[in-house]
Amino acid sequence: MDFPYATEVFFSAALGIVVTMSLALLRSILGPSTYDRILALNSFGTKTVLLIAIAGFLDGRPEWLDLAIVYALINFIGTLAVLRFSKYGSLAAATQPSDDEEEVPERPSLEQP
Amino acid sequence: MSLALAIVGTVFLAGGVFFCVVGGIGLLRLPDFYSRCHAAGMTDSAGAMGILVGLCFFAEPLVIVKLLTVVGFIWLSSVVSTHALVKAAYARGIKLENPRVRDWTVRPAKTAAAEAAGDVPKAAKVPSLDLAAMADSDADAGSTSGGEQGLAQSHGAESESESESESESESESESESESESESESESESESDDSEESRT
Question: Which of these three, B92, B118, B145, is where a domain ends?
Fold first, then answer.
């Protein structure tokens, strides 16, 4: 690498991402509703992907990007799973909530008062 | 040549980190769940794109392919998960905090009562999004406060943040709408009637 300041650039980018991750974590702690927490955790997961990618370049091993890809996939599936759980109360409940409402079990109250 | 590429990549990285930090601040500071969703979605698309494309300028060809895969996947999954999140939150009844924004799928209480009495046919239950009426309600402070009343009544709660109303220059109509929303908790039907006669 001819660019002499590559390590500094990567390190400052990783620092900014860590700051953003701490802000998102603060929102997920403070968040008044469950959806705020889910949103903050989704954002936190995306920032983790970016942090893994930058850490790979910082360490001189860009193969860590495979981990970043896997983490992005898991983050997406995890967000949808948490949403589904908070909507139906179970990961194996009925899929269609609108037409026959008697079939859908009552959702537990996840929101903070 | 490599130095120029590295400088371009540094610029991309700086832009991505800027978007990330601004989105994080917005995620913490914005008053409303839906505006927080805007901040988070902005960060996911612009910030992630900036950082990963910036890393492309430092990488080898195979690594560039991997980076662009991550960019494409984040663009797809972030949009989908934000949409699902907003839809679930809206179905759950998370409310808008801005009193000057009217939720157009919520009807004012008076019209709903008239419909329950059988005056209005059921087919007009959800009003279509009328742009001319929206422009009118933006121009007219009275009808804006009407939308505020409908929103506040339908959700049964009153937002305390009047800072945006105070920052407006039109002081007379603003103070009027403020006093209306203050007296609303005591006499809902009365202020509704005065609202009806004024419009």
Answer: B92
